[in-house]
Structures are given as C-alpha cells and as structure tokens.
C-alpha cells in the first residue's frame, strides 16, 4: 500500500512553511508551557502539532512538516493509522479499563498470542504486557533474576534502556539521562560494544564481531564470573547510542555464550522492533533467537503499551501475582496494537521499510561522496543513521549535526539527532511516508550541508 492509502488521506501530503517554525501560535503555547510544564521535559522541535498522518506533521500555525522521526520510532505504522484508530475507538466505546489483574479481557490474550507468534523462534512462549519500554526492560530483568537465582546484569557501552532507576543504571550516557539522579541500582555491569565505525584494534584493523564478543566474554569471566550473571541485555541495533549495528557475528556469539552458561539473553527491541528494520524484529537479521525480547514504541501505533515475550520456562518461573501493574495491557492500547499488527502483517509495511531504507541510504551515500564530514552511513531498513565527523578524522562533529537539524526545522523537516557524541542524525520516518516527501526532505538536508560547509 502507498502512503496515501494508509492514513494520509485526511492530510495533504505536502510540506508547507507558512510562518517561521515555530510560528506565533506555537510560541504562544510554548510560553504557557514554560509556566506550567516542568523544565526537565524537553522537546526537539517546539512546533505544536494539531494533526499528523502519512509523512506529515501539521502544526498550530498551519505549517506542514515532513516527519523523519515517527515520535521516536513509535508511529511506524503511520500516525492515526485507520486500523489503529478504528480498533481503539471501538474499544473505547465498549469499556476503557478493568485492570487485567482484576477482570481479564480477550484483546490482552490476543496481543500475547500475536507476540508469541511473531517474535523469533518457534519454541513455546509466554508474554506479559506493560506500559513503557523501561517497564518492559525492568520486568525482563526481574524475570531473568527469578529464573536464574542470579543477580548480575550485563549491558553495553552506548546502551539506552530507559529512565527508571534500574534502567538508568543500564543506560550508558550520563547527560542528560543519569547525572544527579543516582544512586543507581547495583549489579549492573557494562561491557564493550561492537561499534564497527570506531572499533579498531591496535594495528588499526576493524575488530570482527567474533573478537568483539570475545572481549565481552573475557570481561564477564574476569570481572563478574559467568555463574553470577542472570542476563545479558542488548539492543540488536542500538537506538539512542547512534544506530550502532554491531559487526556480523557479535550477537550470535553472545547468544551462544549465554546459552552455554545458563544466562538469559534479552534482546531489547523497543526501538528496532516492529517492521522498522524491514523485518518484524531486528534479531532476525542474524537469525538470533533471544530468550526474552522486550517491545514497546512501534507496537501500538502511538498508544502506550510494552511487552516482555520469551521462553515459557523462563517467563513462567515467576508465580501468579508477581508481575503486572494497574494499566499494563490497557484494553485500548491492546486494541490499537492489534490494529497496528494487522497493518504490519497485511499492508506491505515491511516492504515499505526496505524501500524507504534504500532511498535514505542512497541519498546519504551520495552526500558522503560529496562531504567527507559524513563519516559513516549505517542501519537496516527504515532505521538509518549518518555519523558526522570532522574533515579527515573520526572526531565527532556534533556542531554540524546541530546546524543541519536547525536548518531542517526552519524549512519544515523534522530530523532527530542522537548518539553518545551527539553527532548522529537518525532517520526513522513513518513507513507510510511517500517517496516524494522523503526525497524532498533529503534535498533540504543536502542544502543544510552545503550552507554549513560552504
Ligand atoms: C525508548 C527505549 C526504551 C525506553 O522506552 P520508554 O517507553 O521510553 O520507557 C528502552 N529501550 C530502548 C532500546 C529504547 O529505545
């Protein structure tokens, strides 16, 4: 299906800049916000949205902005995808909440069935539903600890797992996520990541996936003791860390090590999951079968829902009443997830992700040939990034990224920066964006580079 057939009908699929961005109405709202909302919550582009769909965000001043962010990989199935809207609306009219821990309902069970079927591996699985990505990661760790009777959790450089106390401990970056918010949960150990663009050995050759995995295994054996490790938790493609795709062989070697040592291997697919990479889950790219998998973001077309799905014997090592939460698997979010999953499976979104990824990669590779500041182009499917460096070195260039983001915002293109060094542009458009909008956005990015480097 094309963009216009999936949710774009109501909103003309064109970029339109009719005021400054943010315009007067957005600025007025921003001043109310400043007086009412805690400063700790930031916004990348304070243009207040009134409608969205296809590949467009419409703001309060009537500007139409090309969306290359999907609300951080959430509206993958399109903003207000008709299937999501219909399912959620029908559910809202039937009942809004019972609490699954008080009175159950079918849609929760259906979402669990869908996740058990769609996640990698054909072993028997079970699922628990929660509200946020961080909550899913917390629960995966709880389950892994209960199952193994061990404490230690291994995470990686550049990792992002959330903003709760345990997930802050698991997240790598101090600013803005951790600094001043400790003390953090204990028994979290950070291992070196495979980061092909920056990962050279003493002789200057790229560290292979197998060697990068050996480095992790040595660290675990020497610094923790593998018999103390409950879980290895890793994003198969790191999101906030800068869309780092580990070298081939890294993930399979870690899965094998985990299996041999009774360690629960947890894939945090909160950002990379749900069709984003052109496969339903990023783990599929190297054929790995995680023991547990955490999902959220793209799962329910914009409604808050998350899940832990995994091997029955691990999931069921936790007895009745020991997992849950008041809103976990809220009926409206479950209905929305069933609508989104229907769209992922039946509306060609996986193919769209591959196609979008090809366009973005092609445009970025052309920019790289023209501007040596584009140090690395990487990603899978519609999860693509460019890492910016100083000319003739791999020193990070966050200043250039900021200039591009600002130029894009002024010209009606929303693009998100990311990465440990703040020097990565990440592209996560809704899978309902048209080729025309995508190419127009990249014309503006190209213009931004030309003006910044002129
Ligand atoms: C966003 C994210 C989280 C946290 O999800 P929230 O819903 O914001 O709590 C966890 N892991 C990864 C990989 C993420 O990208």
TrEMBL record:
Transferase found in the keyword field: yes
EC number of this enzyme: 2.6.1.19, 2.6.1.22
Pathways per UniProt: Amino-acid degradation; 4-aminobutanoate degradation
InterPro entries: 4NH2But_aminotransferase_bac (IPR004632), Aminotrans_3 (IPR005814), Aminotrans_3_PPA_site (IPR049704), Class-III_PLP-dep_AT (IPR050103), PyrdxlP-dep_Trfase (IPR015424), PyrdxlP-dep_Trfase_major (IPR015421), PyrdxlP-dep_Trfase_small (IPR015422)
PROSITE patterns recorded: AA_TRANSFER_CLASS_3
Catalyzed reaction equations: 4-aminobutanoate + 2-oxoglutarate = succinate semialdehyde + L-glutamate; (S)-3-amino-2-methylpropanoate + 2-oxoglutarate = 2-methyl-3-oxopropanoate + L-glutamate
Family note: Belongs to the class-III pyridoxal-phosphate-dependent aminotransferase family.
Name listed for the protein in its UniProt record: (S)-3-amino-2-methylpropionate transaminase
Organism field: Brevibacterium celere
Higher taxonomy: Bacteria, Bacillati, Actinomycetota, Actinomycetes, Micrococcales
């Amino acid at each position: 299906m094309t963009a216009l057939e999936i949710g774009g009908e109501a909103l003309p699929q064109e970029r339109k800049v009719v005021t400054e961005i943010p315009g007067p109405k957005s600025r007025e709202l921003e001043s109310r916000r400043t007086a009412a909302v805690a400063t700790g919550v930031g916004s990348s582009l304070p243009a207040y949205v009134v409608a969205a769909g296809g590949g467009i965000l419409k703001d309060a001043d009537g500007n139409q902005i090309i969306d290359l962010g999907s609300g951080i990989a959430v509206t993958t199935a399109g903003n207000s995808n008709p299937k999501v809207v219909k399912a959620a609306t029908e559910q809202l009219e039937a009942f809004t909440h019972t609490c699954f821990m008080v009175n159950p309902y079918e849609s929760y069970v259906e979402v669990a069935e869908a996740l058990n079927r769609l996640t990698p591996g054909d072993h028997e699985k079970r699922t628990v539903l929660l509200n946020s990505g961080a909550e899913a990661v917390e629960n995966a760790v709880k389950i892994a600890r209960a199952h193994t009777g061990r404490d230690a959790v291994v995470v990686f450089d550049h990792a992002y797992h959330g903003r709760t106390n345990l997930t802050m401990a698991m997240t790598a970056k101090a600013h803005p996520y951790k600094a001043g918010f400790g003390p953090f949960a204990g028994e979290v150990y950070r291992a070196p990541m495979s980061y092909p663009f920056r990962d050279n050995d003493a002789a200057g050759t790229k560290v292979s996936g197998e060697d990068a995995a050996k480095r992790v295994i040595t660290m675990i054996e020497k610094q923790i003791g593998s018999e103390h490790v409950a879980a290895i938790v890793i994003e198969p493609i790191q999101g906030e860390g800068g869309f780092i795709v580990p070298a081939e062989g890294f993930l399979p070697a870690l899965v094998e090590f985990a299996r041999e040592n009774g360690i629960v291997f947890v894939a945090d697919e909160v950002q990379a999951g749900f069709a984003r990479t052109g496969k339903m889950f990023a783990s599929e790219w190297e054929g790995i079968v995680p023991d547990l998998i955490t999902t959220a973001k793209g799962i329910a077309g914009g409604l808050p829902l998350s899940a832990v799905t995994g091997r029955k014997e691990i999931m069921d090592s936790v007895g009745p009443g020991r997992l849950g939460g008041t809103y976990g698997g809220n009926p409206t979010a479950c209905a929305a997830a069933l609508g989104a999953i229907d769209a992922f499976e039946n509306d060609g979104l996986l193919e769209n992700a591959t196609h979008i990824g090809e366009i973005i990669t092609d445009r970025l590779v052309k920019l790289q040939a023209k501007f040596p500041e584009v140090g690395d182009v990487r990603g899978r499917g519609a999860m693509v990034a460019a890492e910016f460096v100083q000319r003739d070195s791999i020193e990070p260039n966050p200043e250039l990224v900021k200039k591009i983001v600002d130029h894009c915002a002024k010209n009606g293109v929303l693009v998100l920066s990311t990465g440990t060094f703040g020097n990565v542009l990440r592209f996560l458009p809704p899978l309902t964006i048209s080729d025309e909008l995508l190419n127009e956005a990249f014309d503006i990015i190209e213009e931004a580079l030309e003006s910044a480097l002129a």
